[in-house]
Amino acid sequence: MTLNRHNLWVSSRDYVVIVLGIFIYAFGFSAFIFPEKVVIGGVAGLGTLVYFVTQRIFGWGIPVAVTQYVVNLLLLAMAYRAVGRTFVLRTIFGTTVISLFIGLLVPLFPEPLIHGETFMNIIIGGICCGVGVGMVFTHNGSTGGTDIVAALVAKKTNTTVGRTMLYVDMCIISSSYFLFHEIETVIFGYIILFCTAYITDLLINTNRQAVQFTIISEHWEKIATAINNDAHRGCTVLTGMGWYSRHEVKMLIVMCRKIEAVTIFRIVKSVDENAFITQANVNGVYGQGFDAVKLKVKRPVSSEGPKEISREDSACEGASVPSSKAPME
């Protein structure tokens, strides 16, 4: 990637949001969850188990941050080839920061932030963890642990990040029963897990929501050019007929992110205040500037037999105009 002012700003903004998301996660875990002695999913939950096991055996516990950092480095070493260099570098950054935050925050909260309200603590903690992980993932970062596993699965299949985390983390949470022999602790861990997975998916899917505009205007050429130049989105021009007027009309079809909808409205209004506009939510937009379709296709049968390969196909040609601006995902 060419180092210029725009790329430097985007990269710096990503890292600032990643650090903020990690802090929210670490605060939720340290202030609400860990003091309640509830084991959550991920490497943080594994570190909690190690802490209480070593405390019971040796009288002192290995800090969660230490276990978390060591396990994350081992997972990254195993997943290096699959996830790529950029993901590994961002994950090393994320795991280092989260270990530092947890190492600093856990000693500050020997008691839960809300005394005598275990259920309230785990709900707030789960929401904080979900918000933190969601912020990190939407800016191409990772907190490590099961995030690495989730990223591997999401890279090859259509399984969501939150769902993958759900499957992997259930084993860690269930194992806490053999340590505490309290079913309440396991149930609380499941509640945190579902809250975290739901909030994570909510943030990620909200960031990816797209809308489709249908614009009818006599000044369609000016509108299309302005959308290309100012919003960096493509337009598809269709020819139609207004049945009432019996006149030929031009319709613009525009796909954009939901957060870009206001920009499209402003562009159209600045060119033609009388333009006819419809806006509709779409379930998914795939292609340049949007998401990539991940699917498995079979090669033609040969003497060696059929083989399955993974391929990312792009659809919705014309949904985005080629430009120097990088895709949002």
Describe it:
- The strands form 2 sheets. A 4-stranded antiparallel beta sheet has the order 2-3-1-4, covered by helices on one side. It has a two-stranded antiparallel ribbon with strand order 5-6.
- α1 (5-33) runs antiparallel to α5 (118-138), α5 (118-138) packs parallel to α9 (183-208) and α10 packs antiparallel against α11.
- It has 11 helices and 6 strands.
- It has 329 residues and is of the alpha+beta class.
- The relative contact order is 0.11.
What characteristics describe this protein?
329 residues, alpha+beta, four-stranded antiparallel β-sheet, two-stranded antiparallel ribbon, 57% helix, elongated, disordered C terminus
What are the SSEs and their pairings?
Layout: H1 5-33, H2 42-58, H3 64-83, H4 85-105, H5 118-138, H6 146-156, H7 161-174, H8 177-180, H9 183-208, E1 210-216, H10 220-231, E2 235-242, E3 247-257, H11 261-271, E4 276-282, E5 293-298, E6 308-313
Antiparallel strand pairs: 1-3, 1-4, 2-3, 5-6
Helix pairs in contact: 1-4, 1-5, 2-3, 3-4, 3-6, 5-9, 6-7, 7-9, 10-11
Give a brief description.
This protein has 329 residues and is an alpha+beta fold.
Number of DSSP strand runs: 6
- Based on CA atoms alone, the radius of gyration comes out at 24 Å
Q: Percent range for helical residues? A: 55-70%
Number of helices: 11
Mean pLDDT score, rounded?
Answer: 80
Distance between the termini: 15 Å
- Helix-strand sequence: HHHHHHHHHEHEEHEEE
Largest sheet: 4 strands, antiparallel
Strand content: 5-15%
Show unreliable segments.
Answer: 306-329
Strand order of the largest sheet: 2-3-1-4
Backbone shape:
elongated
Helix- and strand-based class?
Answer: alpha+beta
